[in-house]
Amino acid sequence: MRALSCLIALSLSGAAFAQEVPCGGDFQTFKAGLRDEAVAMGHDAEVARRFLSGARQDSSVLRRDRAQGIFQTPFIEFSRKLISQDRLDRGRQLSQRWDEVFDRIERDYGISRGVLLAFWAFETDYGAFQGDFNTLNALVTLAHDCRRPEIFRPQIFAAMELYERGDFDPATTTGAWAGEIGMVQMLPRDILENGMDGDGDGHVTLKTSAPDALLSGAKMLSELGWRHGEPWLQEVVLPADMDWSQTGLETTMSVAEWERLGVRAREGALDDGRLEASILLPQGRGGPSFIAYPNFRVYFEWNQSFTYVMTAAYFASRLEGASVYDPGNPDPGLSGEQMLALQRALDAKGYDVGGIDGILGAGTRSAVRDMQARLGLPADGWPTIELLNLL
């Protein structure tokens, strides 16, 4: 489920590990190293040779990898681009069409159907656009590139194992530019670990079988920590005297504690008072407000873009019957260049903003909130021109 972002949300990270992964250099020598490693892992030498023989570099993959500007878009604009009445209508139609599959997911994994439908919609428009990049070429290109080889090199060997099972063709298997396959866009190792034969044909076919794709996605969410039968995100109304510094993912309180502080559900009631939750303001105190339950954090195990996660979680609630959020009247945000300038200023003051990339991610939001508090501004984590000028 990463086609739209293609920012891989795996927990493989760390500079020390990255330095141990071979990358770069002559491409044919690099491929020979892959073959040797595959044999050392127990793969047949001839199978490894056949599997890798036609692999080539794809420069268009690298261009896509370096172009992530969509995540500089604020939540309101981003969500309005992705959520349409047509997508809502088709999602509800597919919910009925695959009712038995969703019933099974809800029974076995405790994951509400809106969650899977939202991912299905955003990643491939319900299977209509699954990507036409050769998957092996994409994985080998990104493993050869020295930016994130520790993420992509293991996926090559996972794809080789799928090939040995008859579920991957190095010449014809296609998907997203970052190697994800199928209706809900899963990487080869995710397929090995979480693939489900939902239609009973003896194969895990994520490109053409909705039951396989949906059940595999549900199993993966469950393995990532989804809590059975619990909520994920809900719109709230906040009190006028809210302490804005308490907002953000860094602060959690029980739902009952938030209620005592005056937080109210915009529709219905908040969930179990014992659940730990955070208050999120994707565009500051002037914009929409949400309470994020523990399951919301699982989204970040799948995709690390705050804007994408907020939008996917919100769309899931819409598919479950929630109303359109109140957009409020947020303060104007920063342009891409202004965001870069802000991140440089925060970095110079010792804050870890998670990279100077012009994207308002969790690290930048946390740094903004702390700096706002230091400067006597409302500490809502939403960067403004006023804050930038003060810095």
UniProtKB/TrEMBL annotation:
Keyword Signal (UniProt): yes
Q: Example GO molecular function term?
A: peptidoglycan lytic transglycosylase activity
Peptidoglycan binding-like domain segment(s): 335-391
Q: What InterPro entries does the annotation carry? A: Lysozyme-like_dom_sf (IPR023346), MltB-like (IPR043426), MltB_2 (IPR011970), Peptidoglycan-bd-like (IPR002477), PGBD-like_sf (IPR036365), PGBDSf (IPR036366), SLT_2 (IPR031304)
Which keywords fit this entry according to its UniProt record? Answer: Signal
Q: Where is the signal peptide?
A: 1-18
The cross-references to Gene3D superfamilies, in alphabetical order and at most eight, read: 1.10.530.10, Bacterial muramidase, PGBD-like superfamily/PGBD
Instruction: Spell out the Pfam families in the cross-references.
Output: PG_binding_1, SLT_2
Q: Which GO terms describe its biological process?
A: peptidoglycan catabolic process
Q: Which SUPFAM superfamilies match?
A: Lysozyme-like, PGBD-like
Note the NCBIfam families from the entry: MltB_2
Name the UniProt record assigns to this protein? Lytic murein transglycosylase
Organism the protein comes from: Salipiger bermudensis (strain DSM 26914 / JCM 13377 / KCTC 12554 / HTCC2601) (Pelagibaca bermudensis)
